[in-house]
Design brief:
17% strand, 158 residues, single chain, transcription, 4-stranded antiparallel beta sheet, Arc Repressor Mutant, subunit A, alpha+beta, 5 helices, ArsR-like_HTH, Tscrpt_reg_AsnC-like, Alpha-Beta Plaits
Length: 158
């Protein structure tokens, strides 16, 4: 369910998405408000489930995770038991950064970060040993054109 956000809420969220470690004083100054109303708004946004958590972003290449694969999964099994095993296997693998169930010809897409192709093969072998998959296509990302964790807040204007 979408929540109604006013302009101050959107400005606060934009600031938090850019740098959640900044002080309340800094956020308040940037959004032209004072500290207490900003703190109350942030508390309200957390309670509403709009802000789900605070985290840090790490540079995958600095950590040696230079290969990013998009893994397209097709299955011929659509039973609840197969799906539960597949989801458990995917959620248990730290290499899987994102996983989505899709509409169309492809059933699932996974974003997998590993050091290299050999590490991807180990991931793949482990996955197919845990659950039967009809067809897997792995696409190596040659270049990351855009990456962001910031939600587009313009659409939320009343």
């Amino acid at each position: 369910m979408a929540h109604d956000l006013d302009e101050l809420d959107r400005r606060i969220l934009i600031e938090l998405q850019q740098d959640a470690s900044q002080s309340l004083d800094d956020i308040a100054r940037k959004v032209s408000s004072s500290k207490t109303p900003v703190w109350n708004r942030i508390r309200k946004l957390r309670k509403a489930g709009i802000i789900t958590r605070d985290t840090v972003l790490l540079d995958p290449e600095a950590l040696g995770l230079e290969a990013c694969f998009f893994v397209l999964v097709r299955t011929s099994a659509h039973e609840a038991d197969w799906q539960a095993r597949f989801l458990q296997a995917v959620r248990a693998r730290p290499e899987v950064m994102e996983a989505h169930r899709l509409a169309g010809d492809i059933d699932y897409i996974l974003k997998v970060r590993v050091p290299n192709a050999r590490a991807y093969d180990r991931f793949y072998q482990a996955l197919i040993s845990e659950v039967t998959i009809h067809n897997v296509t792995a696409l190596l990302s040659m270049e990351e054109i855009k990456f962001t964790t910031e939600m587009p807040l313009d659409h939320t204007k009343s």
